[in-house]
Amino acid sequence: MTGNKHVLIDFKEEAGPTVKFGGEGRGITKGYGTLTNGKTTFKKVSYVEGLTHNLLSISQLCDKDHKVSFSKKDCKVKNRHKKVILRGQRFRDVYTINIDTSTEYVCLMSRASSDINRLSHKPCEKGKQTRPCIKSKQVSTIFSPLQLLHMDLFGPVNTQSTGGSSSYIPDRFEEPNIPQDTPIHSAIPLNQVSPTISQEDISSTSGSAEVVQDLDNPLQLNDVPEASILSAAESIQPPALRWTKDHPIDQALGDPSTGVKTRQQSGNHCLYVNFLSEHEPIKVDETLADPSWVSAMQEELAEFERNLVWTLVHKPSRKTIIGLKWVFRNKLDEHGIVIRNKARLVAQGYRQEEGIDYDETFAPVARLEAIRLFLAYGAHMNFQVYQMDVKSAFLNGKLAEEVYVTQPPGFTDPKHPIHVYKKNKVLYSLMQAPRAWYETLSTFLIDEGFTRGKIDSTLFVKSYKDHVKQSEKEIFISQGKYVRDMLKKFDLTTCSEMKTPMAPPLKLDKDSNGKSIDVSTYRGMIGSLLYLTASRPDIRYATCLCTRYQADPKESHLKAVKRIFRYLKGTPNLILWYPRDSGFDLTAFSDSDFAGCKLDRKSTTGGCHLLGGKLVSWTSKKQNSVSTSTAEAEYVAPGSCCAQVLWMRNQLLDYGFQLSKIPVYCDNTSAIAITTIIDHVMNGDVELHFIPTEYQLPDLFTKPVDEKRFNQLISELGMLNPDA
Q1: Do 195 and 313 belong to one domain?
Q2: Are residues 68 and 213 in the same domain?
Q3: Is there a single domain that holds both residue 229 and residue 91?
Q4: pLDDT for the residue 130
């Protein structure tokens, strides 16, 4: 069975059965013909439109008195005269047979196993790919030196093999001395050989849609067929698609029977599973056997060359030579599919000594509140907001110090094995890397006419007088993919859903008599939730409450954490919404929960800040001191709230907004009376106002509330569920 009509001779159009592929796609049998390479002939070959590989049927071989034997490493096909006519090598649970030495078409045979029960290769290593196939070429392209071929007469030739020989006889065979990684071999294009018909027709079995074409009594070869048809393991490949991915099918993410949807193609396009490595190796030795990771490492080193990062020099004396290390990570898309293997070369910065190898390391980092404030400003001004990821950002930072590093593991210069690299620019994990990159970036932006923020040194502003066109009606922040990844990481994808992250009147305590649980798992779950709170204020209080018990977590604490995950299971796509048609007034709310912590009876401060009705800052934090009354606890809350208000007020000056008399709302009149921020009140910076408890938005950050109140609060704070 083949999917290339041009390789068939004596082709006759004839409607046949529908064939089901490894995915959900199907192909229709359009006709039959003869396929030959001059030595072996295939009769009654079905042409199935859309099929990408030649397939042989083991059962039909046996029906024609052929014997097929399987071993741990290979399989053999013998004719009725007990002579070996075909031999294939095993890669995982798939046996591959090369008909000749240079074709793009490969015959596959599968041995049934406990996890693979379809002869037509549903879990075939080439079931999907992450880039489209290219068309077969009439002129093959060589990717590696000529490998050893066994023929009746061969040579001498001008191009020597890997072993240095130029001619061979059949009774000599040497394995190539280059470690190879091609799991599926290549052979010559079958449409370039002359037709030879010498075998009787073989009728293909009908009925099953998964029947593959058989082979009946192929032409007998010489006494060493293994050498003549199976020698070139990795000879010729198409330039943009090499079958060099030897990864087990159980490493494939998602369902191998379904199509993969990427940014450039729809999910109904047939792709290859395991075209990219799903495994994140730790040691370099593992990666050198995998072309996916070798390509990723070469791409990283190409960035070094492009940016002129280093220069190969003699090893200096009395200088610290810093070692290098490869870090391997898989980049996933929003569906969790591996779309890129990333290799990062980092320095062993811990070997640097302050005052000797570097002086300053400080570099400013943007606060999350500053980012949300910028988004609110962009929504208010109808700006189009762009997010950019600088590739190999640190490689652009220039070094002021003299730094030497070793050659990258696995990529040592054979001519200068003891040389080292002198760094011209910074490298990841160097102590001075963040500062050098910041200085390079800030210098470039200032030269381009940007102005550095007076309060926030990570903010750069450039004003235009031109009219800015309106774009979309809203900006929103969402971490839906992260939520799904987090649920999968902790095996909670099948858990039941909850309406709220914490049910009132739950008050966690130390639970000294409770059963202890694994500390690492609990802390891992807490860490994941804390990262999520950057865009999910609805889980802020519940998460912060659970963080207080990381030292000795109990089952009761784990139950509370799992409830948060169950709530996220039902609301993975909840977004923080910034509409463009709102105002730009800054408003603050403060509240506290008196003696809410059962460990030390400390109160919890909660607050939120809205810019034109858009939530840009929120807090839920246990107070540092123990308050003796409700008024005292409420007094502490407005103080910290006003500090945040003043920072935001100064931040907005860089955007050209000068705000005054910013309202701060509190639901305790006693706290308002004793609050001593006289200077800012008299200067007109802030104003304290009373607000009834039922309108107090920070209730979401100080205590668990019922479902009705919870939904009301997240709606007023500008959180929307697009799935609702």
Answers
A1: no
A2: yes
A3: yes
A4: 44
One-letter-per-residue 3-state SS of 681-692: HHCCCEEEEECC
Same domain, 203 and 290: no
Cα–chain center distance at 427: 22
CB 343 within 8 A of CB 432: no
Structure tokens at 22: 């490894």
Domain span holding position 106: 1-125+181-244
Cross-strand bridge partners of residue 686? 662
Rounded Cα–Cα distance for residues 224 and 549 (Å): 71
pTM as predicted: 0.50
Spatial CA neighbour of 81 closest among 209, 204, 219:
219
Question: For the sheet containing 614-622, what is the strand order?
Answer: 614-622, 604-611, 586-593, 662-666, 686-690
The 10s digit of each residue's pLDDT in 305-314 is 888 888 899 9
Does some domain include residue 306?
Answer: yes
Number of domains in the chain: 3
DSSP 3-state assignment of 338?
strand
Distance CA(616)–CA(718), nearest Å, equals: 10
- Which residues sit opposite 347 in a β-bridge? 324
At position 584, the amino acid (one-letter code) is F
Tokens encoding 90: 């095993």
Compute the distance between CA of residue 274 and CA of residue 248 in angstroms, rounded to an integer: 8
Radius of gyration of the chain (CA): 34
CA distance 89 to 230: 9
Where residue 82 falls (left for φ over 0; alpha for ψ -120 to 50; beta otherwise) is left
**Tens digit of each residue's pLDDT (9 = 90 or more) over 369-404:** 888 888 888 887 777 788 776 666 666 667 777 888
d(CA 601, CA 717): 29
DSSP symbol at 518: -
Name residues whose C-beta falls within 8 Å of residue 44's C-beta, 6 or more positions apart in sequence: 32, 34, 201, 202, 203, 204, 213, 214
The half-sphere exposure of 693 on its side-chain side, counting CA atoms within 13 A, is 7
If we measure between CA atoms, which residue out of 295, 351, 303, 306 comes closest to residue 325?
A: 351
